[in-house]
Design a protein that fits this description.
Glyco_hydro_beta-prop_sf, 13% helix, signal, 4-stranded antiparallel sheet
Length: 111
Amino acid sequence: MIWFLTLLAILGAAQAAVIVPGATWTDTSGNIIQAHGGGFLKVGSTFYWFGEDKAHNSALFSAVSCYTSSDLVSWTRQNDALSPISGTMISTSNIVERPKVLFNSKASIGE
């Protein structure tokens, strides 16, 4: 009987952090994750996920989103890494696909 209760406890814990292929994946605020064509970085114990925001179901540029996680399952949306700038090659009438982000350990935050 103890092995059965242990198994139930393990399964219960596993269900709390499950990724279901093909299912809608939401961030910690309950919004659908918008990080299409994305890439990942790990800095310290934090994972960063950058991708295309396609919330409006358009190929035109809306934003390069940024999410953070410590476990690769629960993701929190941060400020956008890149937003449209009118009159430039990254305006809302342009297309931005598969954004790439690099980490520079020599640059300090806020520069």
